[in-house]
Records
---
Amino acid sequence: MPHDEGAAIPAPDASSVLPAPSAPPLPGVPQADGGRRATWFELFSDLVFVAAVGQITHRIGGHPGITSAVAAAALFVPLWWTWVLYTVRANRADRDNTAHRLLTTAGLAAVTGMAVFGGDVGHGSGADAGFVVSYLCARGGVAALYGWEVRREPHLMPLLRTFLLGSASTALLWLGGLLLLDGPARYVIWAAAMTAELALPLLARRYVARAPHDAEHLRERFGLFTIIVLGETVLGFTNGLVAARTAPAAAATGAAAFALCAGLWWSYFSASGSRPGGHAQLASGGRLTHVYVFGHLPVQLGLALAGGAVGAAVVGTGRHLTAVSAGCVVGGVALFLVSTAVIRAAFLGARDTVVVIRLLTAATSLLLLPLTGHVAVAVVLTSLAVLLAASVAVEGPAHRRRLPAAQGAPG
């Protein structure tokens, strides 16, 4: 797989994070430049999540409204968390053999169920039940993978016990909300269950810190998922152009949407520097790892919200963005910028030049919100693209100063 040395979030090198560098490499896992790379099976697995992300973001484009936007954001969280669970599990112990592939395939079948039912959650108990059961089965697949691996890696046993206990506890909330409640109360209970699941790694940070990690592989996997979410933006505006039959206004909006998408990609993958000692800090504890992983939730959620609304904006009959679409597009871009800045600040400090630039760019982008009801859609999207391009250009010198001299500056 092609690997871009630039990434919006400063990533440590793999050798600084692995707690047992003397351990032999896992069989069946490609090794290159001291770190693992995504396997072909991992890329196949991502295809299933592509479908699921598309079904959830389509809720915004298919029925633009505040309810659809909130539902899409809420459903994105368990889907994202499922992807994280499979990715981190593979990062810790993935031998890429037949047994692991079969167990993972069974779990991916459940993710397919999440994709099938995700578009209709909230519109009937059948879809709600299908989504919850699929989600719990997908989590069961992760538990089965850890259980299989613990035979050879007994140090993973405390992590497995914690995962099983936490999953069983939250499963009671998911199923209780499904069977005993209806309406808003059901979704409140589900939100509580999701919050508890996200908090579990923080509560079990002692066991998490003991588990092996490959930082380079982890960075690559999160970059690939970012590409998946950005791909929904591309699909959204191209579908919009097809539906609009390349009308002049739609063509201009589509071109602006493409420029915005390119700017988001460039902003995420534009930096790889980290201050001296940052890698050692990450290896000494789990805090920065948690910041890196959980910080990607708002990063990728912002991209998903913006991408879902862009398609509707291209095909829409109005000249201006609706309030909800404007909130998704402008707010999604601002959320992306703030989140990448926060993660970078955890590594480099709040006074880092790129952190300040991104926060200022996010604040400037939010100034467009009051104007979205008065200017053309293409103008709003173009303005955001120009802001991102300016941010990337101004950040360039700071990125190059951070890069090791031997590595050289990115093009």
---
Amino acid sequence: MELRTLRYFVAVAEELHFGRAAGRLHMSQPPLSRAIKQLETELGVSLFERSPGGVALTPVGAVLLHEARALLAQAARMRDRVAAAAGATAVTVGILGDSTDPRATRLASAHRRRHPHVEVRVRETGLTDPTCGLHAEVVDVALTRGPFDETGLVVRELRSDPVGALLRADDVLAGRDSLKPADLADRRWFRFPEGTDPLWQAYWNGGEPREGPVVRAVQECRQAVLWNGTVGMTLLDDEPGDGLVVVPLIDMPPSRMVVAWREGDTNPAVRSFVRLAIAAYAPVDPRVA
């Protein structure tokens, strides 16, 4: 059983859709389907229940998902420790999915200038893990958003952004100048899977328990609204695409962009990355820009 095959399996198990998993893995769907089928043949079990609408994990598949995540995390730690022992310098950065912030580009340029020989490994994660793998020890530092369980972590705020309600353009509330979460109390909201950090889940659900479709990625949030007429929260300056609008939400605290790392981490590459991140995300004086 190869690690690559396990990565394929985890992608399908988390996306519950072969097409989306193939896109996430940057490969076409047929070889992914063949790899999963071969894995099932090798193990002699069915890992997924297949239907025209997608796939669902079998009980055996759920067990393998738990074990595969742990094994892949251990493999990543082993790779990093071997590289460190060999004298190689690298830092693994977790980034919350669909990150298009221009200041991240500024940070990448600054880091490249300062540390041209440090290898930066980027691990983009979905919306189910706001720590981007810090608690699982698969990344060294994360550029992400709060709130989340900060136990064992050091978190520094880089900036805060106002949020809005994501609606269909033809929604009866789409023309409002602003909304409160209470205005959406009787609506179905997109929500994250069971087991997601409760602080994170509560914030993006407007502070209340919600009912609605489960999503794992930014694009899934938008599609849930577009196809089902559900609602949810997003950044106010988000460009949601055709058929969708963002209406300012008042009575909601802004979304905090943060850099986070593990307590006690003395890796100088991590410390330097944090300093550069704080500088890259600092407000720019328009008189100087």
---
Amino acid sequence: MFSEAWDLFYFGDDPDVRVRSSSEPPALTGRLQMAAVGGLDACQVLDTLKEIDEARSWLDAQEAKVVTRALDLQTEHTRHDPRDWGYEKTVTASEISAALHIPERTAGFLVEHSTLLTRYCPATLEALEAGKLSKRHAWAVVEEATSIPDTNPAVTADFEDRLIDMAALTTVAKFRQQANRLREELHPETITTRRKKAVKERGVFLTPSYDGMAWLEAYLPVDQAAGIFHRVDTAARALQGPDEPRTLTQLRADVLIDVLTSAGATGHISTGGPVVDGINGLDGMPGNGGSTAVGEPVGRGGAGAFWGVQAKVFVTVPVMTLLGGDAPGELEGYGPIDPDTARRLAGHAPSFTRILTHPFTGARLGADATTYRVPKDLQDAVRVRDRTCRHPGCNRLAVFCELDHTKPWSQGGKTSYGNLAALCKRHHKLKSEGYWHYRQPEPGMIIAISPAGETYLTRPDPPPAPKKDPPPF
């Protein structure tokens, strides 16, 4: 028995039915039907959600083709009028914007992504059409696939295929991190060369928004951006408590405002001191002093509390890189960094915790423990391996997660690299309450079992790639 049905097009006298622009037969036809939702069991619910997702992906693929066709038609039209040359995408976006009641900026992104998808990433379009990827995943694949020079078509095609396989198994956020590492392997230019070019584009930008608000954005070297964010985040978390009504996001904003608008902090930032922890002169700043912020005050200690906070960011460095090699390091949550930056952070930035890897195997150097309490070096090793909470789809950074014994200590589980995993408080509680279960058949490989019995396998991202051939000694 079907309780819901949707005719794609209906011709009748109903004034609420959309009037078609063309007198030709519709290009999109058919009928979707849904069984009575009230009769679905738990497994059917999950299957139906997946099927809806696949149908949505198929529609998104058709949309990309149609949008590209709209651009082609507009391009053909402007070919006969030199006044319109160069305005094809703008005119197409304005047409789509009016038809779909969306902002022209949004329509412009739709045109740009659709043409890249259909013209340059046919394998990704095929995966989207087959329901293997969502639109967000497909657009992310397109952005990554077109981010390296197409100097070798075979390499580019292989890159796209590998990106599709990765995107089909994880969230967009996690995919981008994995794709960044793969891009690093295949890019024809070294990360050192590309960083020197990219750093010239650094800047701070202000974009007005509605309701008396605005966006303040900064394009910075990743180590500096990470240092700033983690310092702000750590200071904000220190202000949390039962009597603090502000959310963590609001606290971060207030900390940033307090630091950048207080007279003392502004003076410190403008001194041009040495770059330490990715922030000019931060480690040389005094740890006390009041705040004269224009907005809501941060709280205990004002801006001075910010300068006294010691943020913690992991930087993974191959041993040979530390000794002068050219293998890239990796910054927690952000991906590969050039060897010079990795060496600088590992050697001179107290807020960055160094994790060394074996020069040939790539294995992280650490030790297991014989007690329930996890020693510091093992905590760091597990958090660097996991990067985020290991629950499927969760992106909370591991540094803010709890370390869980996959097999409980009370049941004979060891405090070891192969029996510990990062879980955020929420997912740790769901495990402790018996809703979700986890197994770790090998170090870092997590099998999560849902309340409905579904299983999800996740593996940790590999450490920075070592040199393939050891030196002859």
---
Amino acid sequence: MDTQNPIAPCPPRSGVMHENTRHTTHFVVIGNHLAQHSELSGLAIGVAVHLQSLPTGTPADIKSVAARLREGTTRVAAAMRELETHGYLRRERVRTPNGRIVTRTISCNQPGAHAQPRQPSRKPTAPPRKRALPAVPKPSYPAPALLQQATDVLAGLRRHDRRLLLSESDTAHLAPGVAAWLERDVSPTAVRAALTTDLPLEDLRRPAALLAHRLTDRLPPAPPFRTPATPLPPPPPLRMRNCDGCDRGFRPTGTESRCRDCRTPTHP
């Protein structure tokens, strides 16, 4: 009777089997901490793998990623938020050399590896002081009525451009400059036009500083001196004479020889 082999062949193992081929070009290394992340959704893991495989400089905004992955922008945006929460994605707003502000997307294949060391705590510093406004011209005689008229001109600038809404302190600083213009025979309408014409199209960070510069840079010259007209000499006094009727003294305005009483007809 033949003896059977006591060692039976092992049955095939269940689960995933790997058939690996070594990559030499066009590949990316993905850590198991990402591929097997227990808190990320499958779409978030796929978006992270896709971002790590892109060359530097490839557009990585939500619409571009959604178009390449054939997913909706809402789902891709939610996946990117997951990656930001767990440190696999970072988005920063930077200013380009030409002044534009763009969003830069940074994909991190190992969160926390490039974290900057914590700086020692510093004492809280005082907030930066507000820069003082440029000086403005001063009127030779700051009459209260003149300053009030200048304040009214400044308060009305916001009706012509909403960016020229001035604070009370800025108005008090600029009012003498407007009063200097009004003192030089410039009408309030002309002052308003000089301050509101050809303003920049972008937002005004310090409108009061711009107005102060215009009040100084565009100050018109003083009006020419006018010699006051010579007043007429007073008329000579009327000479006294005696009335031919009553011999009373009076001052005739013409060639009268009788006083007023003698010239008035008497009633019986």
